[in-house]
Amino acid sequence: MQPTPAGTTRAGRREVGTVVLGAVPLLVWVAVAGSHWSWALASLGVLPDDLLVLTWRRGLVPVVYGLGALVAIPLTVVAAIGIARRRGARGAACAGVGSVALVLAVAAADVVVAGPVGYGTRVAFEVHRPAYEAVVAQLDDVSVGTADGYGRYLPLPEGYGPLTVRGTVDVGEDHVFFPQWTGIPDDAGGFFHMRSGSPAGLDMRGWACADPVHLDDDWWACGMG
Question: 194, CA 20 to 30 Å: which among 17, 50, 69, 109?
């Protein structure tokens, strides 16, 4: 018996629904893996500057990645159950195998395509260096920042807030300090732009810089382990 037009329409909708159920978890898993991929590409110097925001570890970007990770697994389970209900016992088996294969495929792509990511001091600096240099260029006409309990600071220019732990940058007579972490109640560590040489001895929000590491040109790291 040939299916009626109404039956054909319902079958078509079920097929579309099944495809959507399978595609949505895949997109979420790819988005979650995007944090690794963006860092890997940036560390190789092939990620476009306009996409460097994907590598920021503060602000909204890590929140989005975190939420994606929280929903990826339950969303995959829901999709598997939905496909199983649409396809019966054979569909249930396929959905279960497909879910495991999906997770393994994304994990494999994460390792094989992106490769290991180095989150060391030099890699972190090089990945975000264009942004640091853009901030320094905007601060060239600023001699010192606004006084607080630990020294002089300025809020970062709009759009650059995630570059430092609190969205501020310490500005001195001949240096700019980008704090990457702060202790409780004080101390900090991060990157220096220093035109006059080593930043050794300079205050880092309560902790004097010791054993700074020269990164390149006027750039130094201090208190970064």
Answer: 50
201 has which bridge partners?
A: none
pLDDT tens series, the chain, 225 aa: 455 555 556 555 555 555 566 666 766 776 776 777 787 788 878 888 778 888 887 777 777 777 777 777 777 777 767 766 665 656 556 656 666 666 666 666 655 655 555 567 888 898 889 899 999 998 865 554 444 444 577 888 888 888 998 899 998 888 999 999 988 877 889 999 998 889 999 989 888 999 999 999 999 999 987
